[in-house]
Amino acid sequence: MDTKRPASFYFLSAFFIVFIIFLYGPTITIGILSFQGPEGGLTFPMRGASLHWFDELFKTQAVGDVWGAFRRSFALGLIVMALTVVFSVMAGMAFRRRFVGATVLFYLIIASLVIPSILVSLGVGLIFSQAGWTVHWLSSGLGAQLTWTLPFGFLIMLAIFNRFNPAYEEAARDQGATAWQTFRYVVLPMIAPSLLGVALFGFTLSYDEFARTLLTAGSRNTLPLEIFGMTTNITTPMLYALGTLTTIFSFVVIGVFIGTLAFAAHRRSRRASDAGKGMV
Prior knowledge:
- This protein has 280 residues and is an all-alpha fold.
- It folds into two domains: 24-61 and 234-261, no CATH class; 64-225, MetI-like fold, CATH 1.10.3720.10.
- Helices cover 72% and strands 0% of the residues.
- Helix 4 (102-114) crosses helix 6 and helix 8 runs antiparallel to helix 11 (238-279).
């Protein structure tokens, strides 16, 4: 048996390794430099190793409002996540049936993804200013970010419902279930793993969104805007320490969602096993 691999295997392997280095290399570099000693700078070589710059983050800063910006980004991310899930499910359910103007509405929703983000931010900011409304991260900022997250959630739910077998709903209705009971006890449990994916998508897209929040956040920055502003004032590895912590936080959020999915899958398999034993 010939086990010799073709040259294309080694070429693709090398390409994949280079791609991974290109993708994660900057993040790893920032993580390493964030552990510089008190005399360390923004570049190599490192001058000692310590947690000095992480400690500086938790002290009162003369410049910037890191933790206030983090709280705003976290709260905004949760709100965007919840609204994205709710409206994506509603839109996905609506598009399961043909209605007048469905095609036009579909393209209007998707158009938000191809419009430059800075133009969306400018447009939303102008609308609020011309209407006499306060430009604020929780109003105009929320609206601008939803123009980014909702189309993604909508596309995911379209894909999910295109594979959904309506026979389950018909069986529930044959048993006398109402429309709400059919959705609550049949549809929702079956699409729950996908909803977690939409929720994670919505939160992460909101949490690190910069362009669409730039002109809509008002006088209070979100975390990406705060970090951008700090690059002009802070020239120490403390900025790298902040980047490292935010990266760790992002991985923690992803881990929580993955753990939730695994727990839900385990519960479903356990229920199925118990049901099978009950039939024996």
